[in-house]
Amino acid sequence: MSALPEWGSVLAIVAHPDDESFGLGAVLSAFADSGARVHVLCFTRGEASTLHAVTGDLATLRADELRSAAAQLGIVDVRLLAFPDGGLAGIDHGVLLADALAYAEEVEPDGLIAFDPSGVTGHPDHRAATAVAAQVSTMRAVGMLGWTVPDSVARALNSECGSSFSGHAPGDIDITLTVDRTHQRAAVDCHPSQAVPGSVLWRRLDLLGQHEHLRWLHHAREEGPS
Ligand SMILES: [Zn+2]
Q1: What angle do CA 33, 35, 41 make, to 5 degrees?
Q2: Centre of ligand 1 from the C-alpha of residue 140, in Å
Q3: What are phi and psi for residue 143, nearest 5 degrees?
């Protein structure tokens, strides 16, 4: 498959400000360009980042960066929560789920998108956010896509940059999307505290080129492969 599902309302659930841009940016802007109303729930303010390229309080800076980036991506609404960055996996799952379900009730998504259950970059917060998203999609009986990278890209990044990416083999990837990264790059530019020169982000975007890769993690009866 090479096309996104025809969802009118999309809910992205992520852990950190910048995940919506660095990770999902090209896919979310493609949804927005297709006319979908795209919403983002972000569990933390990213205050624990080791990157701090702009002076100031990271929690405040990154909240502002997220709102600016969302505008570039065509996201209609952001719900930013304040769970501890780096500590999502230690929060009672039911507490995270209650907040996610409440937001889903408001935005009535036709489908969800999140990082792959592996967390993609190896960050445990990503895995925790995706676990919540998976439960929301099951409980609301809507489809869910997981963003991943080809395992060849993960291997290249890990060997070149010492990162801990997890990818998937081509046979396990359901949708390979040709993307225009214009809006994503504008959104990345809204995160100056994190988009530092030489970071693995840039090499990943080079390696991915014009393509993003998605897997069906849950699908509603009428969509996606059976
Ligand atoms: Zn993240």
Answers
A1: 85
A2: 25
A3: -70, 160
DSSP annotation of 172: G
Domain presence at residue 4: no
Residue 27 lies in a domain: yes
Spacing, Cα 123 to ligand 1 middle (Å): 7
Instruction: Report yes or no on 51 lying in a domain.
Output: yes
C-alpha 175 to ligand 1 mean position (Å): 22
- Please indicate, yes or no, if residue 155 is contained in any of the structural domains: yes
Q: What are 58-85's pLDDT values in tens digits? A: 999 999 999 999 999 999 999 999 999 9
| pLDDT tens string 172-220 | 999 999 999 999 999 999 999 999 998 899 999 999 999 999 999 998 7
Name the 3-class secondary structure at 15. coil
Owning domain of residue 109: 9-218
**Whole-number Cα distances in Å, 31 to 26, 59, 184, 199:** 9, 28, 12, 27
